[in-house]
Every structure is written in structure tokens, then in C-alpha cells.
Design a protein that fits this description.
D-Maltodextrin-Binding Protein, domain 2; about 40% helix
Length: about 250
């Protein structure tokens, strides 16, 4: 009987050792630019490779950091220029976030760009030309080498961090033309540019598509951060390592 029991235990041991690890859910939240640049592209491959689930929520940076502070997600991902403003905005909403508790890891870089309607023949815009267009001093594409066509400036109401960076880097603090057409978020801006001849709008690398014209503009990098409360957990580190292995970006 003893020998039989020992034999059964030895046969069962390899099965026990080969048992798969329990699948985990990794919850993340972030802005459209960060999500579309980094995590949406790897979601399917990551889940198939690891068996884990990558649950993604799109949100603006302030809500993303609030969700992280409340423990609703494992990490947030935002562009570097939005963090301090998001912390300040959270405080104004009654949620105090101590910057010292946030661990910031740069995982990638996006860029602030301008999108044009596909038929636009303009292929390059200088800082001076962009400033003239968005402040309303340049109103026709022929003034910057394009067709004789009115310029339609689109301005997103739900892209405050892109707007702020663009205003500092390009507009030197001057106001956007009052004739700008108000739009919503990144996706709304992209949709309107595609459908509006003569249109121009701010957007980011992660939302480029074939139906758009993306002219060369001055470099406006948007470093993308992963933010955790303290040191990244094992499952968050697993996602970061997977991204590094797939794309070769040495996060720091």
C-alpha cells in the first residue's frame, strides 16, 4: 500500500509542477496619447503571451491620478507635462496627492503634431507660420505655400495639456484666434480634420492615420510616463518588461 501511494505521488508531482500560474488582471488608466502610443498596441499580444488581462481605461490626466490615488488601478500613464497640473487639479477637487508618493518611469515618447486634411499640399510649417495660423494672423493656406483656401483652425476643449504645451512652445502665450472652431477630444479633432477641407488641429503621434496629412513641424516631444504609488508591483513590472522586450525602449 505504501509503495502504491508513493508511486501515485511521484506521478502527480510533474503535473503539480507544470500547473499554469494564475492569470492576473492589470488595470491601467491614462490619456489618449499615452494609451494609443504604448499600451493599446501591445494589449492583444501581451494577453495572448502571458494569459493576463490588460484592462485599459481612457481618461484625462487628473482623473487618472485620482483613480491611482484611490487604488482603483495598478498604474496610470500620462505625458510628463500633465503631471504637476493634474496633481494641482486633483487638490482643487478635494483629493490630495503627495508627489513624493508617485514613482515616475518614462516608457516612451510621443510628439505633439498638427493634422491637416489629406488634400492639403502644405508639407512643412515653421513656428512662425504655426503661430500666425493659430492666432488668426494667417488666414489662407496660400500664405504658407498651399492652395488658395481659407484656413479653419480647430481647437479641442478636452485636450487642455496639448493646448497648454502648444501655447507655451509655439504661441508664446498669445491667445488662439477667436474664429477657431471648438471641438472635443483627440478623436473628435481627428474626425473633424478628415471631414473638413482647409482644417488644422493639434494632436499627437498615436492618432496618426492614412486619411490625414501630417506636415513637418518644430519638435514638440511628449515624454510618456508610467506612474505608480511607490515601487511598481510585480504585475506592473511584468507589463513594463514585456513592452521593453517587444519595442526595445529602455525605460528609466
Amino acid at each position: 500500500m505504501r509503495h502504491t501511494t508513493m508511486k501515485m505521488m511521484m506521478l502527480a508531482l510533474p503535473l503539480f509542477l507544470a500547473a499554469p500560474a494564475v492569470a492576473e488582471e492589470v488595470k491601467l488608466i491614462g490619456g489618449i496619447s499615452a494609451i494609443t502610443t504604448v499600451f493599446s498596441p501591445i494589449k492583444e499580444t501581451y494577453e495572448k503571451t502571458t494569459g493576463d488581462t490588460l484592462t485599459i481605461r481612457l481618461s484625462e490626466p487628473t482623473k487618472a491620478l485620482i483613480a491611482l490615488e484611490k487604488g482603483e488601478v495598478d498604474f496610470a500613464t500620462v505625458n510628463e507635462f500633465s503631471v504637476d497640473s493634474a496633481i494641482k487639479n486633483a487638490g482643487e477637487r478635494g483629493i490630495v496627492i503627495d508627489p513624493a508618493t508617485l514613482n515616475r518611469i518614462q516608457v516612451a515618447k510621443s510628439n505633439l503634431l498638427v493634422f491637416l486634411e489629406k488634400s492639403n499640399r502644405v508639407s512643412k510649417l515653421s513656428k512662425e507660420q504655426l503661430k500666425g495660423i493659430f492666432t488668426g494672423k494667417i488666414t489662407n493656406w496660400r500664405e504658407v505655400g498651399g492652395a488658395n483656401q481659407p484656413i479653419i483652425v480647430l481647437w479641442g476643449m478636452d485636450t487642455p495639456y496639448l493646448n497648454t504645451l502648444f501655447s507655451k512652445r509655439i504661441l508664446d502665450g498669445e491667445p488662439v484666434t477667436p474664429k477657431a472652431r471648438v471641438a472635443g477630444d483627440h478623436f473628435d479633432l481627428r474626425k473633424l480634420v478628415v471631414a473638413t477641407p482647409g482644417a488644422i488641429a493639434l494632436n499627437s503621434t498615436g492618432l496618426i492615420m492614412p486619411k490625414l496629412k501630417v506636415p513637418e513641424v518644430p519638435s514638440m516631444p511628449l515624454p510618456i510616463l508610467v506612474i505608480t504609488k511607490g515601487k511598481p508591483s510585480a504585475k506592473v513590472q511584468k507589463v513594463l518588461d514585456f513592452y521593453q522586450d517587444e519595442y526595445g525602449f529602455m525605460y528609466q
